[in-house]
Amino acid sequence: MHDQTAMRVEGIAEQLRLRPQATAEADEGFRGLANEFPDQVSAPPTKPKDDAPLGEYYSWRDMRRRQSSDRICVEHANAELRQ
Question: Is residue 33 within 8 Å of 26, Cβ to Cβ?
Fold first, then answer.
């Protein structure tokens, strides 16, 4: 099952509505949820278009790396549970 579908089926989206103070870090699979709850769900930034300035590309890359570094410990914990 897709991550975002699981999140909606399990009622997590409803919990975000009921608890506006709750926040979450998400991966690219939750882009729609991050758009729906921009103050609560943080997803990786979208990639700039091909004709964007080089500085914008480097900024995007740095933001994506920072979020990835913050999330890697959670991803490893999830992987351990599956093994």
Answer: yes
Q: What are phi and psi of 10, to 5 degrees?
A: -80, -5
* The model's pTM: 0.65
Q: pLDDT tens for residues 41-53?
A: 888 888 899 999 9
The total of other beta-carbon atoms located within 10 Å of residue 13's CB is: 17
Residue 45 in tokens:
């930034």
Q: Mean pLDDT, the chain, as a whole number?
A: 85
DSSP letters for 6-67: HHHHTTHHHHHHH-TT--EE--GGGHHHHHHSTTTEE-PPPPPPTTS-HHHHHHHHHHHHHH
